[in-house]
Specification:
46% helix; Rossmann fold; two-stranded parallel ribbon; single chain; 6 helices; mainly alpha
């Protein structure tokens, strides 16, 4: 969704966007079928995408690490004790609905539609884009 948003804003060449998990349960698996369906219904493809775990290199490389929920934040603190997590933040001031547990992919979509434009606006302001 973020890749599509920056593409529509004409900023795709200014961003490198990736996704990584803070847990290991789904590493190597493709995007969950109900998530693939809702993305496809909105014209977005996740073809070839498989889950991978976040690494210390990601933490050092990316300007922004955006978390979906407080479990991700807890996991990051456990995975990277003593590391500077200044570039780590939550997308929203609350947890994004996790469709893995709720089965409600529409609620997740709505949360992301709320949070991603706000994130992009913040990045654009911080970087004068």
């Amino acid at each position: 969704m973020m890749k599509d948003l920056v593409r529509r804003e004409g900023l795709a060449d200014k961003f490198e966007i990736a996704s990584a998990a803070t847990s290991t349960e789904e590493i190597g698996n493709p995007v969950y079928p109900p998530a693939r369906r809702i993305l496809a219904a909105h014209g977005l493809s996740c073809s070839g995408k498989t889950a991978r775990q976040i690494t210390k290199r990601d933490l050092e490389y990316y300007d922004y690490i955006i978390l979906m929920d407080h479990n991700n934040l807890r996991n990051m603190r456990w995975m990277f004790p003593g590391e500077d997590l200044a570039n780590v933040s939550m997308l929203l001031d609350r947890d994004v609905a996790d469709p893995w547990y709720t089965g409600d992919f529409e609620a997740t979509w709505a949360d992301l539609e709320e949070g991603l434009p706000e994130l992009l606006a913040r990045i654009k302001e911080e970087h004068g884009l």
